[in-house]
Q: What sequence folds into this?
């Protein structure tokens, strides 16, 4: 398991059940650590070598799962007074590292497509999307990190 350096971030190993007629990839159960209610679930894709810039939710908890491809997530903590203030956490998730990453509110996240084919992300969020509760950076360079 990857060493988590950001307070409140969880990595949860997930089951993959292989079957000759089609595989099952677990996502989340309400009894799982990191489950804080259900607001919405959505899928997103990201192309190989593309990066989606930084965003931070003020109230929403994100639960990202990558059932296809590989996606690299970088998380940055700028919460004043937090033990992990100023810390980055970098992890690549996908079929070969099949885990769910839980990202608490008020933590920045950006991600890039690593897989050469189709990179699919599932977010199991505890709130419905509200454009008033998110802050976005225009550029990946707005927070300095060596990608």
A:
């Amino acid at each position: 398991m990857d060493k988590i350096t950001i307070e409140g971030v969880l990595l949860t190993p997930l089951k993959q059940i292989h079957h000759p007629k089609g595989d099952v990839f677990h996502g989340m159960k309400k009894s799982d650590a990191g489950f804080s209610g259900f607001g919405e679930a959505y899928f997103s894709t990201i192309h190989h070598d593309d990066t989606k810039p930084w965003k931070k939710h003020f109230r929403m908890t994100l639960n990202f799962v990558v059932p296809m491809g590989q996606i690299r997530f970088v998380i940055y903590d700028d919460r004043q007074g937090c033990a992990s203030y100023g810390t980055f956490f970098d992890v690549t998730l996908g079929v070969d590292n099949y885990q769910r990453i839980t990202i608490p509110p008020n933590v920045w996240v950006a991600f890039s497509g690593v897989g050469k084919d189709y990179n699919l992300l599932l977010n199991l969020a505890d709130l419905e999307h509200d454009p008033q509760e998110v802050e976005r950076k225009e550029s990946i360079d707005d927070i300095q990190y060596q990608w």
The longest strand covers residues 51-57. The domain at 10-128 is CATH 2.60.120.10 (Jelly Rolls).
